[in-house]
Structure formats: C-alpha cells, structure tokens
Amino acid sequence: AKWKWMGPEKANSQKEPSSNSSNTVLRPRLGGKRQAIVFFTQLIAAFIFWVFTIMFYFTISRLPYYQPQLLVAGHRGVWTDGYAENSFEAFDFAKTQQYAAVEVDLRMTKDQKLVVMHDITLDRTTNGEGAVADFNLDQIQQLRLKREGTDELIDEFPYTLDQAIQGSQARGQIINIEVKQDKNMSAVALALDSICKTNATETSFISTGSTVFQHLLYYLQPNVTLEKDFLLHTPSMALMVPSNVNVYAISAELALFNLWVIPNAKAAGMMVLVYFLAIESPGMINFFVALGVDGFMLNNPEHCAGAGVCKPPINFTLERTM
C-alpha cells in the first residue's frame, strides 16, 4: 500500500510536513485498483452469504411434516376475512380447520368486568364507538360483532370470559387467554377466577405480564397453566420461571433474531408456541417445525393447511417436563 502524510489543513497535499508538526496523521491509501478488488470481494461474499441463507430457508421449509403433536391455535378464534374475531362463528371455523385451540383477548370495562375484546376501542370489531373502558359490560353486550373485511354485523355480541370458556369447552377446544391489561392484578385475578369457576384449569392457559405476578399466582392458583412471552437469553433465566408457566409464546419475527430462545425454553420444560405478526406462510411454519417448536398461533387457516401441520385436535397435557 502507498502511504501518505495528511495534515489537518492540507488534507490533499502531497507535501510531507515538517518533523515538528504535532497534528499530522499517518493514513494508508489504497490504489484505485485495489479498492475495486476489496469492494467486489466484499460484494461477492455478501452475495454468497445471502444465497446460502435462502437455500437454508427453502430447504428447511420443504422438509416433510414430522412432529406427531402440534398445538395449533386460532388467533382471536380466527382472524381472517369473512369471520368476526373472538366470536363463536370463529371458534366453529377453527374447529372445521382442525385447530386444537383458540386464542381470545380480554379487556376491562368501566364497571371492572372482563370482556372478550382485542382493541382498546369498540369501533373496528363492533357497531359501537369509543373506548372499552368507558362503557359498562351490559352496554357493550348490547352491541353486535362485525365480520373482518366486510363490516357485516352478525348475531353475536362481545362475550364475557365465562361465556368464551364455555363456548370453547362445548367445542372441545383448549383456550389461550390473553389479558391485555396483563400488568393489572385485578384483571388477571378476574381471569383466574373465571378459569377456576368454569373448571377450565386443564383446558386453558393464560398469559401474564410480569414474573412477579407469575410467582404470586403460582401460590394463589398452582393448578392454572400460565403463559409467558419474554426473552429467554440463557437456560438459567428460563429455569427462574415458576413451574406452572408451561407455555412460552414468542413472535416468529423475534425468534428469527434470537433462535436461542427456543432451545432455552425447551430445556426448561416449556411448550414453545410461535405466533406471527407479519411473515406467516407455509414455508415459515415448516421452518419453525424443523426447529422443534410445539405449536403455533395462526391467523390464516390456508397457511396451516399448506404447511401440512393441521391435524385432528390432540388432548394436550399442559405440564412442565422438568
């Protein structure tokens, strides 16, 4: 390489500075030909890495379905055009698609009761307007649910958790309960009360907001299965979770950036459930099947069928293996 002295005031000067200059910097300068070689070498290396990544993904995504037991849950019952989310018609459709479970969302009403609702407001999913927290439960249950994509009203209203659990039990489905105010102890306590009151401790699991809550709930209701959605950086962190946290949920997008969370959760004896925010497809489903996950929360039933992972409902035992 050629070397060039570059002073602060004459950066482009070819003249060497005097020996008493204290502000000069010695910098290497590559010739134009060598710069081009370095650039194209880096470009080729990046291209090769990209090609091998794509080949790995498509190879994995085409592996045959091999896990005999996968828990497939319908996100919000079924979250797709033509169906009202968090409704019994969604539960029925999930059953026809051989989903073993359904997922529902809970929010607190003005009179401190739980209603099955995903959004903060009523506008998107019902014929009402305004925030869920501004209305009492009996007011909300006078509304009607909308079908996704068409805004067609159906003859169903927003349910209580008791009603949703009973609906899933009547269809032989496991119910995955997400409390949207999951750091609100009152909301979580009400959800636990509904689970116990409807004898759903063996056919449901509930997501909670903090590890502190989980330890507390473990002592209050040790028979209720809890779900946790957080980063498991190391196996030791996973083992710190209470023993009734049997389900570990992670978004596919996050798992791709930290694939260690899957073996860490498995090492702690937890069932790993993957849900998709944006990249749901048959290929991605099979990719995570190959990584050894135990189930999925899916939006589109066509993706499930395309991946070949939807099987007849399975009687899952939601117990830690460690």
TrEMBL record:
Region annotation Disordered: where it falls in the sequence: 1-26
Alphabetic keyword roster: Membrane, Transmembrane, Transmembrane helix
MF annotations from Gene Ontology: phosphoric diester hydrolase activity
Gene Ontology biological process terms, A to Z: lipid metabolic process
Xref: InterPro entries: GP_PDE_dom, PLC-like_Pdiesterase_TIM-brl
Composition bias, Polar residues: 14-25
Coiled-coil region(s): none
Domain GP-PDE residues, every copy: 70-308
Bilayer-crossing regions: 36-60, 245-262, 274-293
Superkingdom of origin: Eukaryota
Name of the protein described by the UniProt record: GP-PDE domain-containing protein
Organism: Mucochytrium quahogii
